[in-house]
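Q: Got a minute? One more chain.
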Amino acid sequence: MSIFEEKITLIGLLLPQTSSAAGLYVPAIRSGNNVYTSGQLPLLDGKLVEPGGKGKVNDESKEGAVYASRVALLNALAAIKSVTGTLDSIERIVKLTLYVASEYHFSSQHLVANGASSLLHEIFGEKGSHARSAVGVAELPLNASLELELIVQCKFPVL
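A: Always. Here it is, folded:
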């Protein structure tokens, strides 16, 4: 088990298996030393997590959406591991983008993104510092409350 996977376990979480793509794409792809994830939904055991897992986020469901952002982040890390073989190859988290299906007048997308950002810092320490965008949108696939993307810089062995 990698050092970062051990940290995830110590926090009381589990790195899930990589879910299969629901279309003509891959969960993550390497380009140079960067790995880009496809959008990851807050799926746990194949189901959207509740509360905040389905539908639009509002002030009442914000805390549930914070939890959902952490679930989506773990799915993104699993997708990265499927490309790198280990999370220990991650040198830096470069960028996190979070799309939040938002009810009219909801403007706390940044607070929802804090759930995923804080988990990155818990797992990766200084390597977890990242650029970020948190965007409110009208609808997401499967009526999910949010979708998360990551870009990470990795160290790969010289071939």
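A: The mean pLDDT is 94.
Q: Perfect, thanks.
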